[in-house]
Amino acid sequence: MSNLFVVSDIHGHYKHFEELLTYWNPEDILVILGDLIDRGPQSLQVIEKVIELKQSYGDNVVFVKGNHEDMLLNFLNNPMEKQEHYYMNGGKETMQNLLVHLPTYIREKPYILQANEIKQHYKYQLEFLKLAPVYKTIGNVLFTHAGFNSEFATLEETTERDFIWIRKHYEITNKTSYINVFGHTPLTYIHESNDVWLSDDKRYIAIDGGCYMSGQLNAVLLNQQGELLELYKVQS
Fold it and tell me: In terms of residue numbers, what domain contains 96?
């Protein structure tokens, strides 16, 4: 039975991601918990690397959507209304990264027209992000970007938005049958450290090392029962 190698919140830090992947054994399942993009300099390269891995390794690569993928898609569909919020949350860096690979005349257009050009030029990459699930269960483990509605014992009560946006769900006892591995909330806000956090009852595992905040990019190796086997990190 394959082990699970899990990483989250890469945020355009392609070189850190590449280094972390050197610890991954392709016989294990690679699980990426969203936020490939924004804030960092190479969001497009990260997206295309994950697509390449998915094409090469099939079901041994799992990508779960994050709130930043959601923000990008919402911005491109409604740039006038969503531009300020998206750019304020690191979207400006992603737009610059996407545009630099397009002709100069496109980079000189207003952002509303740029959004339309990006939708046309990056259809395949955007469709990959759009179709990604918002959670995945493997064995005894529930993988989410942000978390789930921990007031309930089943997942049916959790909305798509909660899977990618919820905060502080880990402060409530996990009543589900799964161990939840999540990113989204930088670890320094959970326990004042960038290192992986395991709740006292071992029912929650948080892994977002705040790479974009000069923290670190973390990965964990688990078995399908949810037991931690190894920890890995790449310093920003």
Answer: 71-128
